[in-house]
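dude i think i finally got it to work??
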Amino acid sequence: MGTDLNAPLGQNRKVSPGRNRAPRISAARLAVTCAVVAVLGGSLWSLLAPRGPFKTPDPPGQQTAQAEGPSSESAAAGSTSGGDPSDRTSVPRERGLSGAEIEETRNPDGSIVRTFTPKARDGAGPLILDASRVGQDPHSAAFPNDDLIENTAFGKLPIIGPDGLRPVEQYARPWSGARGTRVAIVVGGLGLSQTGTQRAIRDLPGEITLAFAATGNSLPRWMQEARRDGHEILLQVPLEPFDDADNDPGAHTLLADADTEKNLDELHRAMGQITNYTGIMNYMGGRFLSDADAVEPVMRDIAERGLLFLDDGSSAQSLSGTVAGALDMPHAFADIQLDGTLSREAILRKLDELERVARRNGTAIGVASAFDESIEAIAGWSEEASRRGIEIVGVAALADNPSKQ
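look at this
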């Protein structure tokens, strides 16, 4: 039997010695090669084809949309409603802004720009608030909600969001909701002393409200540290006292005799120093707060920005409560100045008095400054008070809030 594999089938010719001939491809080998190429080509096509077996299928909704080929008008209507276009009975939603008008513009490149504007309400129908945005997640508490920020020449000022959410709600410290004995303690003057500010944030429990002086230093840094540690914060604005010769609140003080525009500029300059605060607290201000013409436009601006006002109770002639009531704005009064006498023992006695007021009335608010003696006494007393069944809450929880009644 011949062994020349290059010879055609059915023939057994011998090649003459010394003669070179080009090898011939057998029909069998050619058939095998073609079969292999066909198999490999088919496999490659299966992998790369748009609807191949290994291609991830489109979601059912997308498949339906492609099959039906909806018109651009119906697609725009579905986007505007913010939900399933087929469900016309659902309440429209778009990023939680149920009270906003949504206008869509399609650019030449196919991208869509959505513009949100507040929609006038007639009082009918539900107002939907995204519950996850009432109070901040601790991981993001150091950063403002962009929907509650107005960029101005004075910096980022607080405003009410397009869905009605207010800074007093967004930045408030959550509490249990129980109607037991509740106490709020506000420690002010933060930012004026670096060591005092650092110690207050480090040593005071997160339940204590911290008030930052608008004239302080490094306020954004301290604000972020305080918020990360769970504190609700206020902004202290300097107001004109009765005797400014002995009590000078410093530059940028709001004055009773200044025109309204000047005072609002000073207020906005103070507001732009930090973000994430629930309200404004006076620093001094006996004369200013007793002048109705001076205090009314300032309180109105604070109310329209969704903030509370805390009166430290230092002036018996203050009209803040009367004006706040007329404006239906959140407001509160401090019951006790805790560190009028600067000693640990005296401050502890005032804290015990604050507890008695709270047990009698259900709630009480105490204010102090960031002195070492005050911080030490408040930190120790707060831990003991919690064991006696007293809940220490942020000041926003105790504010008289007409819109929630």
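The chain has a mean pLDDT of 80.
im so relieved honestly
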